[in-house]
């Protein structure tokens, strides 16, 4: 995995080097609100360790465990903060559609606001786009 850089904004957030309020922090991940929310609630969960994109994850236990933990944290936060929401969405943008080169899980309590923002969270099949967290976990499961 590539080492983080001082230029990576998410590495700065993970090290608490910014004023970004953290919703969750442990030794593996931190969570915070997306600065440009696309839904009723929109949180990001990132690993403390710099991992550029989903393309850097391998089919191995440690990557599966990390993504699973990221998903658990995202679910816990949304269920805590918007328990009345009936629809949640969890996933990752894949290159070249990711906006920041630091792995980040989008945790969305729907509806999308405004409605057209759902376009950013569509799978584009072999072209990439958005991959649901559960589908990524299936890909990372070791045999």
UniProtKB/TrEMBL annotation:
This is HIT domain-containing protein. A motif (Histidine triad motif) lies at residues 102-106. The lineage of its organism: Eukaryota, Viridiplantae, Streptophyta, Embryophyta, Tracheophyta. Keywords: Hydrolase, Nucleotide-binding. Residues 9-121 form the HIT domain. SUPFAM superfamilies: HIT-like. The keyword Hydrolase applies. InterPro entries: Histidine_triad_HIT, HIT-like, HIT-like_sf. GO terms for molecular function: adenylylsulfatase activity; nucleotide binding. It comes from the Eukaryota. Gene3D superfamilies: HIT-like. PROSITE patterns: HIT_2. The keyword Phosphoprotein does not apply. The active site is at 106 (tele-amp-histidine intermediate).
């Amino acid at each position: 995995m590539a080492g983080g850089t001082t230029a990576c904004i998410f590495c700065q957030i993970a090290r608490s080097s910014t004023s970004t309020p953290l919703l969750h922090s442990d030794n593996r991940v931190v969570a915070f609100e997306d600065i440009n929310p696309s839904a009723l609630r929109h949180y990001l969960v990132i690993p403390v360790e710099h991992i550029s994109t989903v393309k850097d994850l391998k089919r191995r236990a440690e990557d599966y465990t990390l993504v699973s933990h990221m998903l658990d944290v995202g679910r816990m936060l949304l269920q805590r903060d918007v328990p009345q929401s009936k629809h949640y969405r969890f996933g990752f943008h894949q290159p070249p559609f990711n906006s920041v080169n630091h792995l980040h899980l989008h945790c969305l309590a729907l509806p999308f606001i405004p409605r057209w923002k759902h376009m950013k969270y569509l799978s584009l099949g072999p072209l990439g786009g958005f991959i649901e967290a559960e589908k990524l976990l299936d890909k990372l499961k070791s045999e």
